[in-house]
Design a protein that fits this description.
Blueprint lengths: L14 H8 L3 H14 L3 E7 L6 E7 L2 E8 L4 E7 L1 H8 L5 H9 L2 E2 L2 E8 L5 H13 L1
Antiparallel strand pairs: 1-2, 2-3, 3-4, 4-6, 5-6
Helix pairs in contact: 2-5
Amino acid sequence: MALSAFDDKANKPGAKELAAALGRTSSAWNKLKAYLAAEYAPLTEEWKYYGQKYGWTLQLKQKKRTILYMTPLERYFLVGIVLGEKTVRAARKSDLPDWVLGVINRATKHVEGRGIRLEIKRQSDLEVVGILAAIKMAH
């Protein structure tokens, strides 16, 4: 079973299927996309299939720079974001909650940065994502 609710390579998720999978978190999904589109225009959305283990994920980019990834699951979604070391240092100086800093600190360092995933199960979870995106795009 894939991480994503959508694991069939031949079928990219459509709006109806996405809304059905996300359930009530569909509004948080749409709100996050709208916020990022307003803050980081022009925003490009591209569905990517990452294999049987991960399935389909939506990549959001400003020009060539990836802001974050959104992976739909059943009744919630994950936001994945890769943070370079400058961004990690800035995040540590920010007002992010301790639990988010813990996720960042525990993330494995890779050449491209530290990849983290945050569960989005309610509208209030979006505030942290907005802060992280702002820090990332400033660095």
